[in-house]
Amino acid sequence: MAHKNEYHDNMVKMLELIWGKGYMAPGGAGNVAKLLDGTSPQGKRILDIGCGIGGPAFEMARTHGARVTGIDLEAPLIERARRDAEKLGLLGQCHFEFVDIGPLPFPDRSFDIIITSGAITQTSDKTFLLNECMRVLAPGGYLSSYEWMRSGREYSDDMHYWFKLEGLTYALEQLGDYVEKFMHAGFENVSAIDASDWYRAEAHREYEMIRGELYESMVRLLGQRDADHFVEDWRAMVVVIDAGEMRQGYCRGIKPAATPYAK
Known about the structure:
The protein is of the alpha/beta class. Helix content is about 45%, strand content about 20%. It has helices at about 10-20, 30-35, 55-60, 75-85, 125-135, 155-165, 175-185, 195-210, 215-220, 225-240; strands spanning about 45-50, 65-70, 95-100, 110-115, 135-150, 190-195, 245-255.
């Protein structure tokens, strides 16, 4: 989940320009569909951890018929999500809460599905968060995650440079580590998909767009300094993606039908 006050206004504007209105992670509606594939979300209670400004929650409500609770550590993002939910007439299906680091503020077995898109990436204590996900899921519920990950080698100077440009808290792990952590938390039928090839192509497309057809719009929207900063940020990201250092993947698990939590 995003740490407090890391996503400033111009960063949010930039992410929306690249990834679509309401989205702060790649893939847009297609990524939401991948996260929900096979979970039968119609009418289900979904928790979106690290919901940002609400784009995925709105998609889950409108297209997939779910009832969504979104949580985030950044109050301005939650405020924006609430405003947009009201504008879209989705207050009956989408609820957003500002939370602090610590236990999830929900009773046991509160949700049928939990999704995250980048939240575990930015969480240092992944074991604690996964255990909390297990607690608040109903038996048979899904945890479905899309995250940015790392290779197994030491970070290069290029990787450290990209971290500096991003200015965000990252706690990257390898895809296999996610599988182990999901299983250790008690999830069954854990599966993982390496999506690095998909986002490598996307990142190159995005980089060409922002230094080409979108650049003038970025300057008008963000100012020259921030526009140039994000061009360099994406260039540096393409470098570490091409080198195989920054990777992407999906991980999913199911809470067993009978667990110590399911009394």
